[in-house]
Amino acid sequence: MTIEQCISRAWMVVLLSAACGGGDKADDSDTSGGESTSGGESTGDEAVTTGEPPGSTSDDPGTSSGGSSSGGEDGPEKPAAYEKWLKVELPGTVCGNNSQYKFFINYKEGAKDLMIMLEPGGACWDFDGCSGKTDLGAANPDGIMDNHMNAAGTAANISPLIRRDLGAPTADWNLVYMPYCTGDVHTGNNVIKYKDPKGQEPDLEFHHAGHTNSVAVADYLAKQFPATDRLFVTGCSAGGAGSLINYYFFRNTIDAQRGYMMDDSGPIFPSDGYSMPLHTKIRSSWNVDSIFAELPPEYPIADDFGVLNRHLADIFPDDRLSTVFFQRDYNYSRYSYENFYPDANAKDDIMSYWASDTKQLVNLYKTRDNLGYYLPYWRKLNTSHCVSIVNYDETDIEELGMDLGDYIDELFDDNVPVGRYMESVQPDEDV
């Protein structure tokens, strides 16, 4: 079995049964080094109170993290290693179960470009979803493993964009990977107690802390990478939605000359379409109004979440912003509609809602020159969910002779307009 097949199989489990988690729990022998327990949760004895924790390698078994120098207020810390995944823990950042949040940096010596990739893994807004009792739940309900970025695991190989050996345009960039464990598309700002609808289990206290985590990461990266040329924020599914919703905070915090964004398969549709019930639900569960209030006051978000797309284009008019997804995505669409239209939630129903919301988003994007999209029709892998995972096979738009790799190359080309491409309906596919 090839590594692509292994990754594909593993990520279909993560993306389709998100509550199973995205870490590599079966490989506890691959320790992360440093002062953490082997492959497990933090011991609680780690020095994480200063806001400047040492980096520890996540793919060198038994290797000590060493002493990374602390730049304090004077500059960035020196990384413990280059081209290895280094774990970072920041005080005040937590997962849904209130365990320590962890993210990872892979430094490239001399690089001036920075990619931030946000992890996929579903979403939750009730007891069953946040406790991992349903397939429409959220990843990593038990927190992030120290060996989450094990070199042979799924997270470190999720996309060609995160690997240095596949010739991606980001191969020589500094890379940041943000795992997902808050059930809120990296976006929530709420501690809430969910009640068991069956009345059999105690209340579940859940920390939708994605926003706090993202802001803390942005602050840390601003110090670590003070002279960034190109900043690219991306992710798929929950990570795609999170890349768009958090783009303002990353872009406004990190000093970068140029900005790019690719929301893969986490579209923020206009709220006056079929996504309205979902938007209403997460508005209360995740307390998203408190996050929108942090945007500049001249860019309010009231009843329509979709306006965020246009706001970002206007706030950063020179940045190149894009959304990509399959027109037959049968994963994110299920999260968007299945529980909210119980009397009409067969696949044909869900796909019709998705098509209608897609049409609205396309029309919205056409109002701004720096908003682009790439919308192929279907591929068998992962029920057409997430265009940028594993490889770019079957991501092509045949009538244009291009695939996602071509689109990403074009996205980084500042000399051409931001592309908008939508494949025609393919009646012989997804039947």
Write a brief caption for the model.
By secondary structure, the chain is of the alpha/beta class.
Architecture blueprint of SSEs:
Elements: H1 3-16, E1 56-57, E2 85-88, E3 103-106, E4 114-118, H2 127-130, E5 174-178, E6 190-194, E7 204-208, H3 210-224, E8 228-236, H4 238-245, H5 247-253, E9 256-264, H6 276-285, H7 288-292, H8 307-315, E10 320-324, H9 332-337, H10 347-365, E11 371-375, H11 404-411, E12 420-422
Parallel strand pairs: 4-5, 4-8, 8-9, 9-10, 10-11, 11-12
Antiparallel strand pairs: 1-2, 2-3, 3-5, 6-7
Description:
- By secondary structure, this protein is of the alpha/beta class.
- The chain has one domain (3-422): Alpha/Beta hydrolase fold, catalytic domain (Rossmann fold).
- Helices cover 24% and strands 14% of the residues.
- The chain contains eleven helices and twelve strands.
- The strands form two sheets. Strands 1-2-3-5-4-8-9-10-11-12 form a ten-stranded mixed β-sheet, with helices on both faces. Strands 6-7 form a two-stranded antiparallel sheet.
- The relative contact order is 0.12.
- Residues 1-72 have low confidence and may be disordered.
Keywords:
11 helices, globular, Rossmann fold, ten-stranded mixed beta sheet, 431 residues, alpha/beta, two-stranded antiparallel sheet, disordered N terminus
CATH superfamily: Alpha/Beta hydrolase fold, catalytic domain
The total beta strand count reads 12
Shape: globular
Cα separation of the termini? 27 Å
CATH fold call:
Rossmann fold
Tell me about the largest β-sheet: 10 strands, mixed
Weakly predicted, low-confidence segments: 1-72
Task: Order the strands across the largest sheet as they lie in space.
Answer: 1-2-3-5-4-8-9-10-11-12
Query: How many domain regions?
Result: 1
**Count of separate DSSP helical elements:** 11
Helix amount, in percent?
10-25%
Helix/strand order: HEEEEHEEEHEHHEHHHEHHEHE
